[in-house]
Amino acid sequence: MQILKIIITSLVSIAVLFLSTKIIGNKQMSQLNMFDYINGITIGSIAAELATSLEKDVWYPLTAIIVYTLVIWLISFISAKNIRARRFLTGRSLYLMEGGKLYEKNFRLAHIDLNEFLTQSRRSGYFTLSKVDTAILEQNGQISFLPKAEYAPLTPYDMNIPTKEDKADIIVITDGHILEENLKESGFNNAWLEKQLIKQKIGNIRDIFLAAVEADGGLCVYKKNGEVHKNDISQ
Hints:
The protein is α+β, with helices and mostly antiparallel strands. Helices cover about 45% and strands about 15% of the residues. It has nine helices and eight strands. The protein has a four-stranded antiparallel β-sheet. Strands 6-5-7-8 form a four-stranded antiparallel β-sheet.
């Protein structure tokens, strides 16, 4: 009987959390700031309490989740309308680097070390720090990088070159499995896919780690290689 109650209350807690997330919005998952982090932990703890409440009234934790959801929604609404409230609740952006100069005190203030800074720099495509002019720590913990003018990407607009609208790749093979719906969405079929693989001298689909149909109709294939890259030159 207790196991059945755990199953039922677990399903109820999941449903309530789902509705709570819908009300709060995707910010809780994609743009987590300090306030969202604290509330995420709290709501998660209450949901766990709800799922395992065998002797207690399940309405207590359920009511708490509803109250937290409404409070978070209200605070988000106030933050959107009031700049001072938004700065107090979510914080401000912090300059870690400007004009090629690193601000050591701001690093300490933000509780971020150089390794994490360099990691985010590489994730943003800057493997050479001397190419970066400005780095700003955003409220959600991510760092925005602005390259020096001479290293900024040159766009077709800068060169007055006419362009066509680009489209996202359509993934048609993942880990040796064909995604039939995606292949159909790309406008091609299995016969076309087979011909493309033969052109690239690939005989077995299971040897493919990832394959995508590009905007120009070409097939980009990444084969499984089984290799391990052990060197770490970043630290």
